Each structure stands twice: as C-alpha cells, then as structure tokens.
Amino acid sequence: MSNETVLLAKHNIFTLALMVINLFNMFITYGDTFLPTPSSYDELYYEIIRMHQSFDNLYSMVLRLSTNAGQWKEPASKVTYALVNIRAIINHFNPKIESYAAVNHISQLSEEQVLEVVRSNYDTLTLKLQDGLDQYERYSEQHKEASFFKELVRSISINVRRNLAFNTLSQEALLKEFSTIS
C-alpha cells in the first residue's frame, strides 16, 4: 500500500499497467497464431495462474480506485476492464486445479500436472475479445516512459546510497572480492 501511494503521487502508473496487461491480452487472444508451439500457449496460462496473486493485487488496487470519484477513476477503470481475461483464466482454472489436487490427494501439484488441467479445460473457458489489440504504437528508441524509469532508477539509487553506509575500507574490500569472482 505504501508503494502504491508513492507511485500514484509521482506517476500515472496506470498507463504502464495498461500496456503490460494489453500485451498479456494480445498473447491470450492471438497467441495461438504466433507462439512457436501449442505448449507455449499452455505455459502462458500456467504462468498467469502461477502468478495470480500479482494480478489479484493489481485488480484490488484498480477496482478500489475506479470506484472512488478521484483523479485515478478513469485510468483505473481502463485497467480493470483490461484485466477481464486474465481474471477469467485465474477464476476458471484455479477451482479446477484445486479439484484435481483434492481428487488425487496431492498437496503440491507439479508444473506438468497443472498444465494437464489447463489443457483439459480450455473448452469450458470463455474469454472476451479486447478492443484495440490489433492497433499498436510504432517502436521508438526514446520511449514516453523513459522519464518514469529514469526517476525510478534515480530514486532507487538514492535510497541505496542513503541506506548503505559503507566506509571506504569496506568498499575497497568488497570491490576486491567482487573482482575475484569468476
């Protein structure tokens, strides 16, 4: 929550979040046409399911901000809408994975077992076609987000310098140690 407050105060993080989610949506919607193998598509779903907590946290944040009448309502609403397919995948497969584990008396499923559940349950999954996935922005060497990342790196550097108080001798010893690592 504290990171959320800091990032919201300094940057409109929803633009970047929307771009990332749209990239996932493009792979979800059209991935079967350009991913190298059908198993790549299965693995995409596996990773979405595996990382569901990150998507759930993002969804909770944008849902909360999209229901408030603040300055973040519209951009948060766009991200909420874009998360529909990712949430559909998570909400569709998680109960099936839990059921598979219960029926087979397994507490921790392997990646292959989860992929088996995914492959056998595509037919009951309903996804929504997202608008605008066929339109894209041309690549540019100088990204619009460059200032965001510069500020992020600068902030991290300042925090590291502030929090790491090495004396000169320990810095030299540390550098020598790193230089001998092969």
TrEMBL record:
<feature type="domain" description="Armadillo-like helical">
    <location>
        <begin position="1"/>
        <end position="164"/>
    </location>
</feature>
<dbReference type="InterPro" id="IPR039868">
    <property type="entry name" value="ARMD3-like"/>
</dbReference>
<keyword id="KW-0472">Membrane</keyword>
<keyword id="KW-0812">Transmembrane</keyword>
<dbReference type="Pfam" id="PF08427">
    <property type="entry name" value="ARMH3_C"/>
</dbReference>
<keyword id="KW-1133">Transmembrane helix</keyword>
<dbReference type="GO" id="GO:0005829">
    <property type="term" value="C:cytosol"/>
</dbReference>
<protein>
    <recommendedName>
        <fullName>Armadillo-like helical domain-containing protein</fullName>
    </recommendedName>
</protein>
<feature type="transmembrane region" description="Helical">
    <location>
        <begin position="12"/>
        <end position="31"/>
    </location>
</feature>
<dbReference type="GO" id="GO:0016020">
    <property type="term" value="C:membrane"/>
</dbReference>
<dbReference type="InterPro" id="IPR013636">
    <property type="entry name" value="ARMH3_C"/>
</dbReference>
